[in-house]
Design brief:
- By secondary structure, this protein is mainly α.
- Helices cover 68% and strands 9% of the residues.
- The longest helix has 27 residues, at 7-33.
- 30% of the residues are buried.
């Protein structure tokens, strides 16, 4: 009988793949095509990676009966925040994670986005704007990679 990988292992693999894609788009594809709309695709990949890392942590802790999971995503995110110290995730990193997820959500709900110089401007329903540029993407990418590294270290050490 074949041993099935655990859910957290699948989530970690998906996170790693999404980060590789985001990295490739950031450092290889973007400099070649110089198309600002690509920043939105990279943001989506980063969101995917972050959500999979969070899922992996929650699934791992749940598997070891240390936490309870909920149907409500906000409640599960609160649980994740409670685990941040164990996974050596600083408040600054938590803020970056929330910024990535928030910006990705704004992008998803945005009625209007446009390119201005080397930035993407995301407009929300109430006409507030958020901007995304290559430097912000690179800092998000570094945080996401660090989060995956820390998560892998803790999970592999048991």
């Amino acid at each position: 009988m074949e041993i099935q990988p655990e859910k957290f292992e699948i989530s970690l693999k998906k996170a790693s793949q999404a980060l590789k894609m985001a990295d490739h788009l950031t450092y290889i594809t973007f400099p070649l095509v110089k198309e600002n709309k690509l920043l939105l695709k990279i943001l989506d990949e980063l969101r995917e990676a972050i959500l999979n890392i969070i899922n992996a942590i929650l699934q791992y802790e749940y598997l070891h009966k240390r936490i309870q999971l909920y149907k409500d995503a906000k409640e599960n995110f609160r649980t994740f925040k409670g685990l941040s110290e164990k996974y050596r995730i600083s408040q600054e990193q938590l803020n970056k994670i929330m910024e990535i997820l928030s910006l990705a959500e704004k992008h998803k709900k945005s009625p209007f986005e446009f390119s201005k110089k080397d930035k993407i401007v995301i407009m929300s329903d109430n006409l507030k704007t958020s901007t995304l540029d290559l430097d912000k993407i690179k800092s998000f990418l570094l945080e996401a990679k660090d989060l995956l590294r820390k998560t892998n270290l803790i999970i592999k050490s048991g």
